[in-house]
Amino acid sequence: MVNPHVKVIGVEPCGAACIKASLQENKVVSLPSVDTVAEGTAVKTPGDVTFEFIKKYVDYYIYIFFLLFRRYYDKKFCRICL
Predict the structure, then answer these.
(1) DSSP 8-state symbol, 79
(2) What digits encode the pLDDT tens for the residues 50-71?
(3) CB of 61 within 8 A of CB of 9?
(4) Which SS3 state, helix, strand or coil, does residue 63 take?
């Protein structure tokens, strides 16, 4: 059961926004290339099951430039930040 008081927010890097492209087309699409240093999110094509899950459960998506994410990550998790 989904709690109506909880909002699910998806986050995707601008340089690998395969979910954004797929949502715009309302079908799974493949990006020609990706450009991000976030290896875990460097995805050209979302999975079919993942895409259907996102359409059903994610309330909204935000797209971040990796440099902004990197600044936050470095400050939060690194002992020495340059």
Answers:
(1) S
(2) 999 999 999 988 887 765 555 5
(3) yes
(4) strand
